[in-house]
Design goal:
By secondary structure, the protein is mainly α. It contains three helices and no strands. The radius of gyration is 15 Å and the shape is elongated.
Length: about 80
Amino acid sequence: MDDKEILAQINKLAEEEQRLEEGHVGDGLSDEEHERLHAIEVTLDQLWDVLRQRRAKRNAGRDPEDARARPAGVVERYLQ
């Protein structure tokens, strides 16, 4: 997956996240929707992490294709 594909996936998930959040203002989310929202957030964190890895590897003269998604437990502990 190249940078453009990663960004496209990020944008798609961000739109879904926004629809979920805006579609239930004042009503709250169902348990299933909460689970989906959490899954989206974790996946977004992983995608952003892969994109940062790719950019760092490219800037260091290394192959960006070596970037790999890290487990949710790792990316969820990063400070924003």
